[in-house]
Amino acid sequence: MRQLVLLALVGLGAQLVDGSLGMAYGVTSTTLLLAIGTNPAAASATVHLAEIGTTLVSGLAHWRFGNVDWKVVAKIGVPGAVGAFAGATFLSSLSTDAAAPVMSILLLALGVYILARFTTFGLPKHNLGKPLRKRFLAPLGLVAGFVDSTGGGGWGPVGTPAILASGRLEPRKTIGSIDTSEFLIAVAASAGFLVGLGSAGIDFTWVFALLIGGVIAAPIAAWLVRHLPPRILGSAVGGVIILTNVRTLLKSDWIDAGDGLRYAVYGVVLVVWAAAITHSVRAYLADRREERAAAETEAATAS
């Protein structure tokens, strides 16, 4: 019973982060399942089965709060489902751990770019409102879906930074669209795992526990992303991407850093991240004051 309560709390926390930042549900939940001895394919299958429910509720909540661009959902979600199904059947017989460091380097570069861009300049405006093209979203969805099912998570970490970096969709709609389209990825990946594994190794009680926690958190996260300022949200997302991928790289066979070095690097990342968010909050408040002052001046002039 204690284990099920813990799983429910993990599902709640993971969905709260995922629904408000567009990533980390799969990574968080899969990490816990692997830590207690679940094999990678069964762990990913368990998480994706739970995500069918959590992503459905999350998508509905994001739609309710106006956080979804349905054209983006369609353009990225369908190719993503194809990639997820292929990745799930592939993982049933082969590990893709060797590709993790390469992917982490790419994601780390995007994370640094996003953190610097949003912290320094705020919401990108020069491309905002321009449509995201299918020739960009379709390959992105295919790769993100494959990575998600083979790695137990990755739809958000791959899709969210790439769309944010384009500057064509505001952060809350990027996160809402990624979370909503993830329902298609969860269904396709689950189908692929059931084809490749059957139900062997999948504990449906664990699936239910993760699902309950995630369903509770989904509407709360959708509300948060609706009300958090884009500048602050962009800085927060950038920090998550950096911290997640620095951890992957330091623990990879390429570097295999000791505990002391890893924790020192984590500390530096956290300090920089906190400073970036603090700067974003101050800049946002300053912008709000300027906007109010300009509005008051305009009103006084008009009267």
UniProtKB/TrEMBL annotation:
Matching InterPro entries = TM_pro_TauE-like, TSUP/Inactive_protease-like
- Keywords in UniProt for this one? Cell membrane, Membrane, Transmembrane, Transmembrane helix
Record-annotated membrane-spanning stretches: 72-92, 98-116, 183-200, 206-225, 232-250, 262-285
Mainly resides where? membrane
Q: How does it sit in the membrane?
A: Multi-pass membrane protein
Location of this chain's protein in the cell: Cell membrane; Membrane
Q: Which family does it belong to?
A: Belongs to the 4-toluene sulfonate uptake permease (TSUP) (TC 2.A.102) family.
* Protein name as annotated: Probable membrane transporter protein
Instruction: Report the source organism.
Output: Actinophytocola gossypii
